Each structure stands twice: as C-alpha cells, then as structure tokens.
Amino acid sequence: MDAKVLENAILSLGRDTALLARFRADPAGVGAELGLDAEWAAVIADGRRDRLRSAGVVDGITILVSRWFADDLGDSTSSSRFHVEASAPLPDPDVPENLVFAGGCSHVPDLLARPEIDPADAVERLTDGYRRLAERLAAADPEVLLVTADCHFQSFRTGAFVIGTGASHTGSMEFFKRPDLDLTLTGDPEFAQAMVDAVRAEGMEVEESDRIDLDHGLIVPLRQLLPRPDLPVIPIITQPARSFSPFGARAFGQVLRTVVESRGRRVAMLATGGLSHWLDPGRFGGVDVEFDTYILEMLQAGRGNDLGNLEPYPLLDHGQYEFLNWLIMLGLAGPGVRGEVLAYEPMEASGGGWTVVDLPLPDRAPRDEGGRACLTGR
C-alpha cells in the first residue's frame, strides 16, 4: 500500500469523528472508501504502528492510530519497532539515466591503521566486501564519483551539508598515527558548482568549499575502491553534530538527480559511514546489531528511502548518526532499488557495526560475481 494513501486515510479519519466512528465499526468497508484494502484497514484499526512505519508513514501520523484512534494513552500495544514491510508492493525504480553505480560502505579507520585489533576472520570478510564492491565500481566505468562522508576534524562555517568545489583534495590519517596513509583526489569544480546551484535553487541550505581536508572518512573507502587515481571525485560532507535531519538528507540527494540527469556524464555515488557507532564518552565500542540488521533488511527490501521518514531520535538512539550519508545516496538513486549486502561485521574493538552494500541498478547490464558485465542473467 502506498504510504501517501495510508497517510491520507489516517488524516481523513483524524479530521472527521463521525467517519472514525464508522471506521471503528466497519474497518474494511469504510477503509475501502478511503482507498485501503482490508489488510491495511485492519492495520490502522488495530493500531499497528510498526507496520505503518515500515510502509513509510511518518511517526507523527502513525501515533494517531494508537494514542488517539484506539485511545491508548500510553501507546502500550505498539511493538516490533523494527518491522520490515514485505507485503506492500515496491514502486518501480526511477534511477537517473546517467547514474551507473550506487553503494555504501563504512569508513573504519582501524581497518587500515591497525586491523590487528579486530578478529582476523571478520577483517577478512569485511575486506572482501570492499574488494567485491571495488570490482563493481570499476565495471561501472564512471566519469565522476560523488562520495558522502561526515565531518570529523575540519570545521566549516555553517551547519549545512558541504560540497567540495576544489580542483583537488588531499589529506592523510595523521590523527591515527599513520601519516603514510594519505590520499590526493582530483576534483570537478564545474560539476560540483552545478550541484551547489541546484540545491540553492530548491531553497535548501548548502555550503560550498574549495578545501576539503581528507580524513579517514574518505581515505579508508577510496584507497580501497577508487577505480583509477585520475577519476574526478566530489566530496559531500555532512555535519551531524550541528544539524541532523533524515528527511533533509534524502531531499538533498533527490535534488542532485537533476544534475546527474542533465550533465551527460556517467556518475557513480558512494555513501560512507556507519552503521551503528557511538563517539560519546563511555559508549564507544557498542554495536546495535538489531538495528543494524533492520537497516540492512530495509535496504535489501528496496525500502531504504523510507528510513528518511524516521524522526531523528530513532536513528541517533541506535548510533546511526552517519546514516545521513547513506540517505543522500538513497535519495539520488530513488526508491524501489534493492540492496545487496556484501559484508556486515559487528566489531567492538574498532567501535561499530561495519558494512559494505551494493545497490545493483535496474536496466543495466547484469554483472557476474566479480562485477563484470555479462550477457546472461545473474
């Protein structure tokens, strides 16, 4: 069931007490008047907020069905907060034509700086996930790569997302006692400025910066994934310590679709960061496997964009402050694209639930296990 149909039905019931009374007496019949099938009418009548949330309905609306419609003042019957809705049909993917690759991975500094602190078998599986993603990125043969990361050490003027407009970007992992782990990237000022202009044209905030000091957020993934050293890279930096909006991150990515579609370049999009990860004192090293699994299952179900409907707290409470980076990528790729999890490893020593995910895009040449284009199906 489409989230907008569900939202409109719930709001209609909320505005009309007589309609709500009729609905309580005959959920299926009145639900049909509101465009609902019998199953989803029962979901609303029973106050099952978990299923409504997983279908993409925002929490400010889902709470009406329990606290107000069902008169459950404590919302005490709601459960299964991490339900993934598998029965509702996915929208047809609407991927920008020039987008040739989309995926995401963690940017764990210890993976390169001191991998020996984590279990060797877990490090090997995670590294293999990067290897497989690197093969798929190379096979996509992009002409420009957009990469999201969050701000770790560099301070910008505002709390807005930052787009790197410089001709080059450089840095090292000196803060992790490894200045030898350095990287220099070629930028694309013209493409980056087009992105800035498109965001501002939509009335959204963005900061442009000709200087992006590379840290582990970009060095760790790109030292493993960058197909060639001269590939132009445009960094997009989020600042979750200053502003945190899941909806805003997804909307930011959606605006970038117009640039990708109009520039005539083969574009790849890589999100970095997360999953669960805490920096606050006393909590570093915690891993929320349950919520990490929920996010990965949402990605696998093609419902990653629906995570942008969460209020900030559900993500922050589960250590997902870096998931803004992924939501930008998901907004660009669009809804309905199913993810493939190449690796997930909870690693307490390095401090989080680390993952590598590919979003195989539709209407592209199928790939074999190594990521190479092939003439037959998978």
Describe the 3D structure.
The protein contains 15 helices and 10 strands. It has an 8-stranded mixed sheet, sandwiched between helices. A two-stranded antiparallel ribbon has the order 4-5. The chain has helices spanning 3-15, 17-25, 27-33, 38-46, 49-54, 59-62, 64-68, 109-113, 120-140, 189-201, 216-225, 246-262, 289-300, 312-317, 323-333, and strands at residues 99-105, 144-150, 162-164, 168-173, 178-186, 207-209, 233-238, 267-272, 340-347, 352-358. Helix 1 (3-15) crosses helix 2 (17-25), helix 3 packs across helix 4 and helix 12 (246-262) packs across helix 15. The chain has 2 domains: 3-68, no CATH class; 99-358, LigB-like (Protocatechuate 4,5-dioxygenase, Chain B). By secondary structure, the protein is an alpha/beta fold. The protein is 39% helix and 16% strand.
Furnish the topology, listing elements before pairings.
Blueprint: H1 3-15, H2 17-25, H3 27-33, H4 38-46, H5 49-54, H6 59-62, H7 64-68, E1 99-105, H8 109-113, H9 120-140, E2 144-150, E3 162-164, E4 168-173, E5 178-186, H10 189-201, E6 207-209, H11 216-225, E7 233-238, H12 246-262, E8 267-272, H13 289-300, H14 312-317, H15 323-333, E9 340-347, E10 352-358
Parallel strand pairs: 1-8, 2-7, 2-8, 3-6
Antiparallel strand pairs: 1-10, 3-7, 4-5, 9-10
Helix pairs in contact: 1-2, 2-3, 3-4, 10-12, 12-15
